Amino acid sequence: MPDTTKVDDDLLLRDYRPRPHLVTKATHITQPRYPVYDAHNHLGETFGGGWINRPVAALLDRLDEAGVRVYVDLDGGWGEDILQAHLDRIKAAAPARFRVFSGVDWRAWPERGDGFATWAAERLRAQAAWGRGRPQDLEAVRPPSAEPGGRGREDRRRPARPHLADGGRAGPACAHPRGRPGRLLRPAGRRQRALGGAARAPRLALPSPPYPAFLAILEDLARLVARHPGTTFIGAHVGCYAEDLAWVGALLDRCPNFYVDFSARIAELGRQPYSARRFFIQYADRILFGTDSEPDLDTYRIYYRFLKPTTSTSTTAPRRPRRRDAGRFTACTCPTTCWKRSITATRRASSG
């Protein structure tokens, strides 16, 4: 009979599969209490499961089943031909159900040089007309990948400022900073929380050195938001810094034009349930619902459970190739009024 008390000295971390033994009531939520405005999601091949190529009727059926009233597609910002395809395919079929974000073509920067910002503002005005006033994704403001050693971080951003200032005149303007998890911008090693995260996605890792420090990039973003009070900024993934809610809250306090969504960050929020609860209560009208995981029914239901005020057990996020490090989270005990106020914030931030 094998000795089950002996620990295998040769056990590898990749083979370690612990099982939870906590016994408690399981809560399964299939429908949200209020209609959902999913302010951060995708439909393209890379991040959206290829739903852009599936029948629109099937997509609408999925959203109805999940209780999602409005779906914001961020995949229109990678070229005007792609934007037109998304508008023609989904926006035209159900204009009240979809919002499509647009963007500027960064490949034109080397060719246009100092005239890039003026050209970008013109293109955004044209895109706004195509979408009949939908919000625009001014991708110039996402936290930059920057060059090694910090070269060009500020001056690379400077040409983008005129079209940020012009964005409000082009129609409902909405800049959408997108941040990689902080762990991918810090050196990998034994002190890294998500061990192997950077190893599984080396192309996403931008550690400092040689790249600019993570906090330097965030402070650069904060200055940009403050310089353009007429543009609404939605900081994806809890303002790009779910690990420090005090920092995000301070930016929300300073800049009324700054909003956040909590897409793809319920694992980080679940590790700080009390702080997360206070954050959601204090900034409920500045927080947008989003999942960043395509219209996946299981994911929606996990997010609904996360927002349930009386849930106290842990849950495991769906395991998919690009969500391997989602991990477990402890449900945030947010009052259900957050749902109503978050819907109001979503409407305000993405009006039109």
Question: What report would you give on this structure?
Answer:
With 352 residues, the protein is of the alpha/beta class. It has one domain: TIM Barrel (Alpha-Beta Barrel). Helices cover 36% and strands 10% of the residues. It has helices at residues 56-66, 80-91, 109-112, 116-130, 153-157, 161-167, 197-200, 214-227, 236-239, 245-254, 266-270, 273-282, 297-307, 337-349, and strands spanning 36-41, 68-73, 98-100, 136-137, 173-175, 232-235, 258-261, 287-288, 314-316, 328-330. The radius of gyration is 21 Å and the shape is globular.
At CATH level 2, the architecture is Alpha-Beta Barrel
Strand content: 5-15%
Secondary-structure element order, as H and E?
EHEHEHHEHHEHHEHHEHHEHEEH
What is the overall silhouette?
globular
Q: Please state the average pLDDT score.
A: 76
Helical run tally: 14
CATH fold description: TIM Barrel
Number of self-contained structural domains: 1
Largest β sheet strand count, sense and barrel closure:
5 strands, parallel
Notable characteristics:
three-stranded parallel β-sheet; globular; alpha/beta; 352 residues; 36% helix; TIM Barrel; 10% strand; single chain
List the helices and strands and how they pair.
Elements lengths: L35 E6 L14 H11 L1 E6 L6 H12 L6 E3 L8 H4 L3 H15 L5 E2 L15 H5 L3 H7 L5 E3 L21 H4 L13 H14 L4 E4 H4 L5 H10 L3 E4 L4 H5 L2 H10 L4 E2 L8 H11 L6 E3 L11 E3 L6 H13 L3
Parallel strand pairs: 1-2, 2-3, 4-5, 5-6, 6-7, 7-8
Antiparallel strand pairs: 9-10
